[in-house]
Amino acid sequence: MRRPFSRLAGAAALFGLLLSAGWPMEAAEAARIKDVSSIQGVRENQLVGYGLVMGLQGTGDTLRNTPFTGQSMQSMLDRMGINVQGLDMRARNVAAVTVTASLPAFAGLGSQIDVNVSSLGDATSLKGGTLLMTPLSGGDGVVYAVAQGPIAVSGFSLQGQAESVTQGVPTAGRIPNGALVERRVAGSISDSIVLQLKNPDFMTAALIVDAVNAFTSDRYGMKAAKERDLASVTIQKPKKVNVARFLAEIGELEIQPDIPARVVVDQRTGTVVIGNNVRISTVALAHGNMTVRVTETPQVSQPGPFSNGTTQVVPRTNITVDQQDAHLAMVGGTDLQTLVHGLNRLGLKPTDMISILQAIKTSGALQAELIVQ
């Protein structure tokens, strides 16, 4: 029987082996400002539309169960001058779909963007289909792009009389460069630039300000940045400097972002992630597992020859209890390497480590935020 979390436990053992061999661990990795922040006002815009996919090999919507597909076909044919009023259409090569896309900031007229297509009715597969011209609107109801083209589907579904095979999601696909931008989103960058931190933190904001001011003082003879709060930094563009070039220079500056002391636990998969700044006050702990196994081995009792007895099933239950020995161990450390060494010495599985971390947090020895997902 395959043990759960075997790959996770193997990864944890490998991590512990690297640490015991003296594998170097950096206190914090340098990151570019453009990777830890975004520019306020420079963002994507969500688009959505409703369309029809044609050319399916009998895997489209059943018009009896999805009447809106039939209505859409009728409206489309009416606009093309074909009268289908009162006709009973039974086509299975058409599917109603929703089309979504993200319009990048400052996207020019005629530029191409990717679109995602998802079935709206009871179609079984969109493989081989072609999306007809579909307007894509924003939240304001204005059409910003038009999508059309063949759909790329990674999944498939095959069905016989007694068995069916499905891999991936055949009712969803993607059209690379499938939409043309027809309208630009109004927007501009002023001389007062606001950087928004992706992981808000006062120390990270201060580090960004120091790095920007050091650069602008040396390059332009002025301090251009100022921290506004834990989530944003304001930067004043120097005079006679192109804003795009200035943002490119600022984005390449490197800092070492501050990482909060945090432990993230996912009980569903047994994943444990410990941040670099996590500290545990020295504690003594013992952890042991108890396994209770109940085995049913029923026996059949047959009556003797020429007797009037009946066959009876006699239950036989065997219960065994196995409890591992638990010894007290000292766990604690001032850095992540010492902490991981201490936990690895106990030979813990991910599920055991989750229980121990929760108990250490309850005792007040875990100097970090514990997030249980």
Automatic annotation (TrEMBL):
Residues 1-27 form the signal peptide. Keywords: Bacterial flagellum, Cell projection, Cilium, Flagellum, Periplasm, Signal. InterPro entries: Flag_FlgI. One of its GO terms (molecular function) is structural molecule activity. It is found in: Bacterial flagellum basal body. GO terms for cellular component: bacterial-type flagellum basal body, distal rod, P ring; outer membrane-bounded periplasmic space. One of its GO terms (biological process) is bacterial-type flagellum-dependent cell motility. Pfam families: FlgI. Assembles around the rod to form the L-ring and probably protects the motor/basal body from shearing forces during rotation. The basal body constitutes a major portion of the flagellar organelle and consists of four rings (L,P,S, and M) mounted on a central rod. Belongs to the FlgI family. PANTHER family: FLAGELLAR P-RING PERIPLASMIC PROTEIN FLGI (PTHR30381), FLAGELLAR P-RING PROTEIN (PTHR30381:SF0). This is Flagellar P-ring protein. It comes from Pseudoxanthobacter soli DSM 19599. The lineage of its organism: Bacteria, Pseudomonadati, Pseudomonadota, Alphaproteobacteria, Hyphomicrobiales.
